[in-house]
Amino acid sequence: MAGVGAAVVLRAYCGTIRARGRPAMSPDQVPAALVITMWEQYGSGMTDVADRVGRQLSLPVTGQAFSSEDLEAQEEAEERNGGFLDRLAAVLGAVPSGLSAAKAADVNEREGFEQLVADNRALVLSMAAQGGIILGHDATKILAGRPNTLHVKFVGPVEERVARAAADRGIGTERARRRQEREDRVRVEMADRFNRWDPRGTDYWDLIVNTTTLGTDGAADLVVRAAGRIRG
């Protein structure tokens, strides 16, 4: 994706959301199908755990909106053109009659950002209505207080996470370290910018799992047991 412009990234993301999603429902209309939301510190093995839990509970897994490769590919553009979050929220369009180019750009950016947030919320509510495991997407904040929902965060010491990511992804340690530094920062910034929450704390989580201690299978077993209690 190197060299792909911000508008292309945003339009592709919004297109994915619209292809997946259904119209948003109010919280009291959402059926109480089992939902597990997940978030991780980079290199904690969330995807592997989610796949195992999904197989054990027969739940579909929806991946994160932006992969490590997506974020990595945009790093050079971030340095050239400003913050990554600003480019994600920017929408390029025609200048409406009577507006200056600068003011029109501000209007387009704000409207594009608001549409992105609304589309993501609609997608999360649609997935929740069907039940499943949702990685990222600010689903933990959006579905806070929803019945039959388990919110899980995966953590671990930095060095162990970097080593695991390097081994799992087949990349060098230094590249894994750069990804860790980038993603542990950017994913928190996106959470704050898009839905005004901080996933680093404990307020939103039912379960915080150190995967370097428990391993993938142990973490998956713990999540399955916790989901059983939520269901019960």
UniProtKB/TrEMBL annotation:
- Which Pfam families does the record cross-reference, listed alphabetically? Cytidylate_kin2
Q: Which InterPro entries match?
A: P-loop_NTPase
- By its UniProt entry, which Gene3D superfamilies does this protein fall under? P-loop containing nucleotide triphosphate hydrolases
Its recorded name reads Cytidylate kinase
Q: What is the lineage of its organism?
A: Bacteria, Bacillati, Actinomycetota, Actinomycetes, Propionibacteriales
